[in-house]
Amino acid sequence: xxxxxxxxxxxxxxxxxxxxxxxxxxxxxxxxxxxxxxxxxxxxxxxxxxxxxxxxxxxxxxxxxxxxxxxxxxxxxxxxxxxxxxxxxxxxxxxxxxxxxxxxxxxxxxxxxxxxxxxxxxxxxxxxxxxxxxxxxxxxxxxxxxxxxxxxxxxxxxxxxxxxxxxxxxxxxxxxxxxxxxxxxxxxxxxxxxxxxx
Length: 198
What we know:
Layout lengths: L9 E6 L16 E2 L2 E2 H6 L9 E4 L4 H6 L3 E3 L9 H11 L4 E6 L9 H8 L4 E6 L2 E10 H13 L5 H7 L2 E5 L11 H6 L8
Parallel strand pairs: 1-4, 1-6, 4-5, 7-9
Antiparallel strand pairs: 2-3, 6-8
């Protein structure tokens, strides 16, 4: 295998294009924890381990720009799910590697990036935590990702895990780790996040 990619060769791609339907349409990117929006928390989570940061987003694009983040909207039809975000990030990515994370991820362990990098196969790696496979937490070789996307889309395969099966990606277990997601009001309540009145 080739030498491990340097931080400057990895783009962090945050998947924030969802509708937040289980939270009444709340934009999960801007949910605040301890006074910091989720998108900024994750964008700053890996200093020195990633270079550029992109955000897959479909609303309030100016808000990302105001926060110093580059947002890229979906190019696929509506209802294409998270694969639309992955496709948009892959198209916009200017580094050889892309690390995707969902913006509603509760947290990751400190060694996430270096573990995925060191355990990657030819086309990357996908994380598995205590809850099982986490297909949105993945490191992709961008050239291979771009090459695989057209066939996956032509076959109607919108699940990221199906795309990953087309690629040579290692499945990397994070023993005893649970990333968690902020998907529902119960998830927010469990970590004492109170949404502002709408």
